[in-house]
Design brief:
The protein has 226 residues and is of the alpha/beta class. The protein has 2 domains: 142 residues, CBS-domain, CATH 3.10.580; 75 residues, Histidine-containing Protein, Chain: A. The protein contains 11 helices and 9 strands. Helix 7 packs across helix 8.
Length: 226
């Protein structure tokens, strides 16, 4: 599925020159926790988030000596502006990373996670064409998991579990055996730790089509104390 299928097209961006009081009204009226910001020519230049507004109401603490000593004066000035500015441009979060409408939703999800973006601007030919929120992405991925169910076929469950185990360096693949029946995965063997066992069970539960996981895994450390 592409971003174009799930992006919001009716979002009204806020001009960078607008006062913050107006920007908050934009966000509230559209039910958004973050809103696109556009420049004088209508080009997307950033986002305004609730965190950008919230930081203005927090009590400013004296800067520690190490921050004054080692931080660049320009960065300190930017921090001050973010706390005391009166326009959207003063406090917004600049965004240089966007996605196109034809990008896969999985790519958009990875970008949002890596950079901590609450929303993602969808841009085509330099023009803002939509907005993607985390809720939009999560709903889309959940629907894709339901569609890609594989009907719980045992052979498919085993293949997918083995594929995922082989892709993870922390898995003791040589000591683990996977079996399945319709919609049920069985895991047998030795693992190095409780953390590995818990992660393997979570991996199995995430396999499309798997409804139940039966664990027969033994932690080596526990085995040594028996």
């Amino acid at each position: 599925m592409t971003v174009e299928k799930i992006m919001r097209r009716d979002v009204i961006p806020v001009p960078a020159a607008d006062p913050l009081t107006a920007a908050r009204q934009y966000m509230t009226a559209q039910g958004l926790a973050a809103i696109p910001v556009v420049g004088n020519d209508g080009e997307p230049i950033g986002i305004l988030t609730e965190d950008d507004l919230l930081v203005r109401h927090l009590q400013r603490k004296p800067l520690p000596w190490w921050k004054i000593t080692f931080d660049e004066p320009e960065q300190l000035a930017r921090d001050y502006l973010k706390r005391t500015g009166t326009t959207v441009a003063d406090v917004m979060t600049e965004v240089s990373i966007t996605v196109g409408p034809d990008a896969p939703v999985e790519h958009a999800a990875a970008v949002m996670h890596e950079h901590g973006f609450p929303v993602l601007l969808v841009v085509a030919d330099g023009t803002l064409v939509g907005l993607l929120t985390r809720s939009d992405v999560l709903d889309s991925l959940r629907e894709a998991d339901i569609i890609d169910d594989h009907s719980g076929d045992p052979a498919q469950l085993v293949r997918e579990m083995e594929r995922q185990m082989n892709a993870e360096p922390w898995v003791s693949t040589q000591t683990i055996r996977v079996q399945a029946e319709p919609r049920v995965l069985h895991l047998f063997g030795l693992v190095r730790s409780e953390a590995e066992r818990a992660a393997l069970l979570a991996m199995a539960r995430s396999i499309p089509g798997c409804v139940t996981v039966e664990s027969h895994l033994v932690v080596q450390k526990l085995l040594m104390h028996i």
